[in-house]
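Support request, please re-run this one:
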Amino acid sequence: MTSELSTAFVKLHGRLAPVPLVPEIRLHQADEPIGLWELTEGEFRSEQPPPFWAFAWAGGQALARFVLDHPAEVAGKRVLDLAAGSGLVAIAAASAGAASVRAVDIDPLAVAAVALNASANGVSVTAEQADLLDGDHGDAQVVLAGDVFYSQGLADRMIWFLRRARRAGASVLVGDPGRAFLPAGACTIAAEYDVPTPEALESVAVKRTAVWRIP
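Re-run finished. Output below.
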């Protein structure tokens, strides 16, 4: 899908609305998750990723709230938002005064969503389609990741990437509501929030979610 088609798709299927836990930020969000998931050939039936960009997931909401409430974590620093989805966390970092923000995702629709959402919130974010997990974090001083431990394969790759970034001197923060593959033993809790979530996605209306720091 070309970048123009991706942008048009996001505009067509996402309605600009405030994020429940982070109402300062507006995102193009889908009203009906299951229909969009099927439309984009979700449930991993094809190579097209599920539409993670179309929803404000619990981990991303918690991490964005933490960054806005603790701007010193990112202010004046180069930030990488990994598996950026909608760009919620990247937008929060830019709003909190980051020197630069790079938002990376493997899904071209997510890249389009990040660009649209950053523009809607009046901040500068560089959106990039890439898989960085076998590489490194570049020159980022802070690495942020929301809701990235939802499968064993991804979790294994992700924790190694985050540990490499931490060993290289970057600060690493993860937002996660206790997904099955979260390596909690490798993290410490920085904050916890009760996050409003779509019941169609999470089966509950509010999900207790933590921001974790890789020590």
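The helical segments are 3-13, 33-39, 58-69, 88-95, 108-120, 152-167, 199-202. The longest helix spans residues 152-167.
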